[in-house]
Write a structure and sequence with these properties.
Layout (H helix, E strand, L loop, with lengths): L1 E4 L1 H11 L1 H13 L9 E9 L2 E6 L6 E7 L2 E8 L5
Parallel strand pairs: 1-5
Antiparallel strand pairs: 2-3, 3-4, 4-5
Helix pairs in contact: 1-2
């Protein structure tokens, strides 16, 4: 399944999360779907959060990107700090 980070958010991410976490988020995006625990990548949310169906998560950071399926592509458009826990 294809997944993207919304263009405006992608441009701002290095400033918002730092260069190291930005690189980790891009790598996790390329990794694709993963399980719910202890893995970097795209996780399906169950239940959904404010209409978002997926989160992009990385190890060692509580920062997440939230996304939803749009025309067969998961589009991540919101950064949340502190995770969903």
């Amino acid at each position: 399944m294809d997944a993207w980070i919304q263009r405006e958010l992608y441009k701002e991410l290095p400033k918002l999360v730092g260069q190291a976490d930005f690189r980790k988020l891009v790598a996790a995006l390329k990794k694709g779907l993963v399980g719910p625990i202890n893995q970097a990548g795209i996780k399906k949310l169950n239940p959904t959060v404010r209409g978002f169906t997926h989160e992009l998560k990385i190890g060692g950071s509580a920062q997440r990107l939230l996304g939803k399926l749009e025309n067969g592509v998961i589009v991540f458009s919101e950064l949340i700090r502190g995770g969903l826990h």
